[in-house]
């Protein structure tokens, strides 16, 4: 399985929105509604922000939202805050006989 | 309170073995999929090994398939990653995580560092 494709970086000013794309294939993102997004601050463990494409775990602000169209999933962070500056990774289920696959990661900078 | 705590990392030479442990509290490892994820220095996340809740289905990253084994001991509420014939490229922080559903890992440990020298 090849890694999902994410842009290396994205940025926005406080209060603005930023959208990160995650492109896979019709064997992973395109085939299943099991896309998750993780946030990782330096030196910390990843944190689940979105699961099953659009769902937010308890405690995750509604500024974070997910969507999917075809083979591409997206994470949107609205009303950017300083603490949103982090690396973000997407991942997708890839079928019952395959290991899941991570995206390459996107570094979000709050200007 | 749900928690997972990894241990067992360290510095080893290429070709040696290590066993990582992930002790769970607040839930039973027999009821959830459990995952090992690694992150090489300065690199991205990588699924290494996953154990589905049924305890039978396991998946491995291609480069570790014949060298690593994921298992669990429900009596100890612990998940293990047996790593044999370690390579320099296995150097990474190894995280244990509990699956919510289909690779949505809601609870993560702090990680244990594996450093393989040549």
Structural commentary:
The complex is a heterodimer of chains A (111) and B (118). Chain A has 111 residues and is mostly beta strands. Chain A is built from no helices and nine strands. In chain A, strand 5 and strand 6 form a beta hairpin. The radius of gyration of chain A is 13 Å and the shape is globular. The termini of chain B are far apart. Chain B is built from no helices and eleven strands. Chain B has 118 residues and is mainly β. Chains A and B meet through strand 3, strand 7 and strand 8 of A and strand 5 and strand 10 of B.
What's this, in brief?
The complex is a heterodimer of chains A (about 110) and B (about 120). Chain A is mostly beta strands and about 110 residues long.
Number of strands of chain A: 9
What is the strand content of chain A?
Answer: 35-45%
Strand content of chain B: over 45%
- The average pLDDT score of chain B comes to 97
Query: Can you summarize the main beta sheet of chain B?
Result: 7 strands, mixed
Runs of chain B with pLDDT <50, length 5+? none
> Low-confidence segments of chain A, ≥5 residues, pLDDT <50?
none
What's the average pLDDT of chain A?
96
Q: Give the distance, in angstroms, between the N- and C-terminal Cα atoms of chain B.
A: 41 Å
Radius of gyration of chain A: 13 Å
| Most strands sheet of chain A | 6 strands, mixed
Count of alpha/pi helices of chain B: 0
Can you tell me the overall shape of chain B?
globular
- Shape descriptor of chain A: globular
Count the beta strands of chain B: 11
